[in-house]
Amino acid sequence: MPHCKVCGNPVSKTDTECRLCGAALKPGYKRGQTSNDYVPSPGSGSEGTTHEKDSPSRWETSAPYQAPKEESRVWSPQKIIAVVVAAAILLPIFAYFVSALIGAGPPSFILTTPTGQFMWVAHEDNRTIRGTFDDFDPDTRFSDCAYRVQIGAWTSSTEEVVANWYFNVTSPDYSMVVYFADLDMNGIIEAGDYCNISSMDVPLGLQCSIEILFEPTGGSICSTQFAFL
User: Fold this and answer.
1) If pLDDT is split at 50, 70 and 90, which confidence band does 48 have?
2) Whole-model pTM over 0.70
3) DSSP per-residue letters across the chain
């Protein structure tokens, strides 16, 4: 019995390649051909095949193997837009909880205007009015509120409230200074917090007013009228 010249494995006379190592056993044979596809080389003594010498085998004419392409890692515009939209929604919520943790007081996610009032309005002197707040329900931050002042027939624009800060309000004829005091420094409007309004040029006895509004809804929380004496 013949043997493979490469590995020594016993082979039959009809085998075209070694079953153990795959080595070609006949001249002109290419690995992967079947016995019917075998095209002998000139002079090999096996010219009497069913195929012509120059006929390509099925192995030679088959398409080369291509590994599947890895899915692209480049993000599509739709994915980028989805991430941007998600960030726009989640970042304000994250800021809400961070501000609550650091003691600024919980921001309002209130859908209705809170209720509140000035407990009293008193003259500090003939040029200064103090309006003292009662509790707002539910708890409301200074920064969620806005104010506007009326001096006679003139009304100021709406301005955001900032606690412990002085605001200058100027009409064509007169001027005022408005100050909001947060006594506990917690950002929440609570009973005892107040608003001071002073002026050096508003005529004594001229009717004036201040109104506190809730910015998310634009609704009025409270207002009071006053005049300098």
Assistant:
1) very low
2) no
3) --B-TTT--B--TT-SB-TTT--B-STT--TT--TTT--PPTTSS---SSS-TTPPPHHHHSPPP-PPPPPP-SPPHHHHHHHHHHHHHHHHHHHHHHHHHTTS-PPP--SSPPB--EEEEEEEETTEEEEEE---BS--BGGGEEEEEEETTEEPPPEE--TTEEEEEE-SS-EEEEEEE-TTSSSB--BTBEEEEE-SSSPTT--EEEEEEETTTTEEEEEEEE---
